[in-house]
Amino acid sequence: MEKSTIPVTTEAVGKRDLRLTVEIPEERVQQEMRRVAREISAQVNIPGFRKGKAPYSVILQRYGEERLREQVAEDLTREFYRAAIEQEGITPYGPASLEEVQLSPMRLTFTLPLPPVVRLGDYRSLRVEFPPVEVTEEDIREVLEIIRQENAVLEPAEGRGAQPGDLLHIQVEGRTDQGELFLKDDDVEVILDPEDTYPAPGFYQALEGITPGEERTFRLKMPGGQPSEEAEFRVQLLALYSRILPELDDDLARTVGPYPTLEALKEDIRKQLLQMRERAAREEYARAVIQRLVDQAEVEYPSFLLEERMQDLMEDLEKRVREEQRMTLQDYLKVAGQTLEDLQERLRPVADFLVRRMLVLGELAWAERLTVSNEEINQRIQALSTAWGDRAEAMRAQLEKSENREHLGAQILYEKVLDRLIAIAHGEPVPEPATGGENETP
After folding, report:
1. Segments forming the whole domain that contains residue 42
2. Is residue 349 part of a domain?
3. Cα–Cα–Cα angle for 186, 189, 191, nearest 5°?
4. Does the structure show a pLDDT above 80 at 168?
5. Is residue 383 part of a domain?
6. What is the mean pLDDT of the chain?
7. What is the CA radius of gyration of the chain?
8. pTM: predicted TM-score of the whole model, two decimal places
């Protein structure tokens, strides 16, 4: 087949999709129709002829030209698509879809994705201020108060009803307006905290003053109207305990850990809070830096990437609703007063950002010549498998599978990209990208 003999037209569709129309020369179509006719003649019985001997005109009359042309179009689609993209110098980013088939003259119309285009701009000038991180004395006092609460001594409360701060040993049932049981526990301990809103606002206020052996029934409005607008609760108090909080002193410090003094405990609390807040601040900082980088970048991508990410988000939501709400996605949307189209419209900008973020970070990895070696993947596998102790060898064998090595390589590369981006945004000196060479494929 001569490339120059293939009539091809192209038309841009969206940002990075292309409509490609290929016309198959009629001479080739006629040749293929005769081939198809011979195959039919060899496979079926035609009255008056031996198998394979029926002439073309008989097959054409018996089966019709349209059927022969349909088979020809099906047989030649892949060949002429490949020839057309090679002739036009097109490198698709993914599989094409056959949108339309015209039989006479024979034209095949495809839509195919083109590689994304990402322009990062002057990303090395990007600067984002790192948020200050501190731990105050009030923060430490709050943690110490939690430690006191956890180490309270319980004593049976006699001759009085329940008060805020008491520990209540209760049986509880909750039923909807329709009488359906949605909450039941025959042996549960709770702290009487008037500020607590679970299972419904006012639940603990309704228990103030209750005495051991007493049973109370009361109705409360349910948050969000779930599982009904109101619910009826039946609570029986089995036992009542007052909680005696320990003093904040060296004895308490020695009780909760290897701390010789209260000051040593405070210092450890300060250190742990600082580490926790620094990690949280770094995560928030990374999100802000990525957002700035994506916002300043120019990104064009084929539509199928958005549709794939939309599908991922929908499947994740469906799984979460099924596990957490015990509902189908359709029922969840019905309860929320939404349609599937409403949900898709709400998820579309989220999916768009996720696609652009993926492409921008990938482009940054290439621009900075960040790579992942097999040795780095091996080290990560060693570290992960060692943590499994006796099962280390089984875990190592699992991680060595090609798809898991690929996943670990992508994870390590993401960490490198994030570290480099944070360093740039923080104004730290970073090495210039190495020249030449492509990213190593894990």
Report:
1. 3-115
2. no
3. 140
4. yes
5. yes
6. 91
7. 35
8. 0.72
